[in-house]
Design a protein that fits this description.
The chain is α+β, with helices and mostly antiparallel strands. It is built from 8 helices and 18 strands. The protein has 2 domains: 227 residues, P-loop containing nucleotide triphosphate hydrolases (Rossmann fold, 3-Layer(aba) Sandwich), CATH 3.40.50; 111 residues, no CATH class.
């Protein structure tokens, strides 16, 4: 098990990492998710031994690695730019790390074949890496990392240079490989879709601090802060003022919130509005302008724009609010959508 405890890091007088602590269990894939500058790549470099922290501990299976050189940590690294040797073919690129470890030639050959088989590139052994596509080059980089049989695998924005179709395909392959090999791994990305697809656990970073740690389903269902909700794009965020028990007034109306926080009349909070059920159907309003359906919390508006996004539609109202629906309403149609309203202090 990898243990990261109380990491602090400053650069040019600015605090980059603020008391970072987490663990990675055997066979677990965690994702460090955050915007650029949130500190996720710095954490990875410190774990790899490529950079030092001001203070804190990096340990694996109870052994302190804080001062251990990178090549003695037995960690595998996969980068966005592949970091392949252009003058070497696929076979020699995968074998490079094994040769540096002075492993016998028969063992090297066996590991190269096994690693390339894992990434479905066995027939590419003698190809020049410069003749491969971006997705194929990234699979070679993964095979090279797997060949050394690392105790931990680390990925720094590995799919950032690929187009969407290649990203989705390689992401699915990578998840299967990680589960099959049972190697603990850390995956760094700013892409929430990647993070929620590949991770067993997501750690969301903001300004050098972990602000949410949980399974993808838990983080999506319970963001626990307005920063996380905004970063994940979970719905509409707005300020609300408590006007009565569980009643909050906003620029878009009054909403009922069964909040677990303690509030007094006049208190200002941040509210998140998102559809309360998955299969929502836009309903045409009655001729008098009122919704044909009653609900305690509803988001109302005239449809200003409809955009198809994969398997659903993003519907934007004339008041700036938006929802994702399974069925597309018509532009200009007035609709009401039941919403779940959550409160953040």
């Amino acid at each position: 098990m990898l243990e990261v405890r109380n990491l602090f890091k400053t650069y040019a007088g600015k605090l980059l990492l603020n008391d970072i602590s987490f663990t990675v269990a055997e066979g677990e894939t965690i994702c460090l998710l955050g915007a650029s500058g949130s500190g996720k790549s710095t954490i990875l470099r410190i774990i790899a031994g490529l950079e030092s922290a001001d203070s804190g501990l990096i340990a694996f299976n109870g052994l302190d690695l804080t001062t251990t050189p990178p090549h003695l940590r037995d960690f595998g690294l996969v980068f966005q730019d592949y970091a392949l040797f252009p003058h070497l073919n696929v076979n020699d690129n995968v074998a490079f790390g094994l040769k540096m470890r002075r492993i016998g030639q028969d063992e090297i050959s066996q590991r190269v074949v096994t690693s390339l088989g894992m990434v479905s590139l066995t027939e590419f052994r003698n190809r020049k890496v410069t003749d491969l596509s971006g997705g194929e080059q990234q699979r070679v980089a993964l095979a090279r990392a797997l060949a050394i049989r690392p105790r931990l695998l680390m990925f720094d924005e590995p799919l950032g240079a690929l187009d969407r179709a290649l990203r989705e395909d390689l992401l699915n392959q990578l998840r299967l490989i990680l589960h099959r090999t049972n190697i603990p791994s850390i995956y760094v990305t700013h892409d929430q879709e990647e993070a929620l697809t590949i991770a067993d656990r997501v750690l969301i970073l903001h300004e050098g601090k972990i602000i949410r740690d949980g399974t993808p389903a838990d983080v999506w269902a319970q963001p626990e802060s307005v920063i996380v909700a905004g970063f994940l794009g979970l719905g509409n965020l707005m300020e609300g003022e408590m006007v009565a028990e569980n009643k909050f007034k906003t620029v878009h109306g009054i909403f009922t919130v069964n909040c677990t926080h303690t509030h007094s009349t006049g208190d200002k909070v941040q509210l998140l509005l998102r559809p309360s059920i998955k299969n929502l159907r836009a309903e045409r309003s009655e001729s008098n302008g009122e919704s044909s359906r009653s609900a305690e919390n509803e988001m109302n508006g005239v449809v200003a724009d409809v955009i198809f996004q994969q398997d659903r539609f993003k519907v934007t109202f004339d008041n700036g609010l938006y929802v994702y629906l399974n069925d597309a309403p018509k532009t200009g149609q007035k609709i009401s959508v039941p919403v779940k309203v959550e409160c953040f202090t």
